[in-house]
């Protein structure tokens, strides 16, 4: 691999715990195996899953501290380089990969798939969790999952902000609930990466998105495509405010990233007039930022025939469709700003303590790439 150094800078996760477990180190540059490409990383979007995996916040039983392991055994082993939504350029090839790929800019489909099926993904895992990711100067990736996105109008940082961790999760929430054109859809956590993706995707498929967020973010969310923005600070009048925005009609579906005590109120907004419905109430849930336990009467679920869909990641088919929409310019980046890789601790603190002006994604740029790919989008606290 000519012109490729033997070592690189990387932010290495050394175990479950706090930010002290993220260490900026020199590590060997990986070598691509058959069917893989070596990518020089220019930008990687930060996701909440980075923090949750680091802190062991993916329990499937009460009281446990772990990362998820749907395939039956842990795949997050240490040391690990996190970072799922990777953008960069192909600089070396494994056996069987076309030489034409050298120099291509691409975006990663972040999943580690268990098999070749395109329509289902039962044991989700991802780069940055079950294999090393993009918080480094180089990374090896499957050639068929590193999708060429040449669009010159998109800076690398902007393209990373459109990464599959948010967009594929959002799209799978919609497809799981079979959301159709004309349906009224509540998007909770609307200002985050998945939320802003949901608003855009609803408009692409013809659904009508209603955003739940802070009042100060209303204009930005309306500009992005939300039909209306409901202030989450007063949930006591939530159903009445939904009725006011929908001419008294119930929501058809809810895309829930919040959980906790709000979930019951979201169900209220779908079932208050069953005679006005033409489909079953549907709840897709892919997050629990408001609490991991919700108290719900099961009689409400089965008597009102509420369909609940748990969503984690998505399928190859959905990733391919999203890549097509990105190339066609139908999806737009919502980039908040960039931090240097060496400042990842600051980026994590900024993310956790973000204020009312926060909208969209943070990206992490290797220090060696900073002037070209990071500085134009620098967050003041990190740049």
**What is the H/E string?**
EEEHEEEEEHHEHEHEHEHEHEHEHEH
Strand content: 15-25%
Please state the overall shape, judged from the principal axes of the Cα atoms.
Answer: globular
Euclidean distance between termini CA atoms: 32 Å
Written description of the protein model:
With 383 residues, the chain is an alpha/beta fold. The chain has two domains: 7-162 and 334-377, Quinone Oxidoreductase, Chain A, domain 1 (Alpha-Beta Complex), CATH 3.90.180.10; 166-310, NAD(P)-binding Rossmann-like Domain (Rossmann fold). It contains eleven helices and 16 strands. The protein has helices at 48-55, 156-160, 164-176, 193-205, 218-224, 238-245, 262-271, 298-303, 316-327, 344-352, 370-374, and strands at residues 7-13, 22-28, 36-45, 80-81, 85-93, 105-108, 138-142, 146-148, 184-187, 208-213, 228-231, 253-256, 282-285, 307-310, 335-340, 361-365. The strands form three sheets. Strands 3, 5, 6, 7, 8, 15 and 16 form a seven-stranded mixed sheet that branches. Strands 11-10-9-12-13-14 form a six-stranded parallel sheet, with helices on both faces. Helix 3 packs across helix 4 and helix 6 crosses helix 7. The longest helix is centred in the middle third of the chain and has 13 residues, at 164-176. The protein is globular and about 65 Å long. 48% of the residues are buried. The mean pLDDT is 94.
What distinguishing features does this structure have?
22% strand; ER; 2 domains; NADPH binding; 383 residues; six-stranded parallel β-sheet; zinc ion binding; Alcohol dehydrogenase; Rossmann fold; NADP; Quinone Oxidoreductase, Chain A, domain 1; alpha/beta; seven-stranded mixed β-sheet
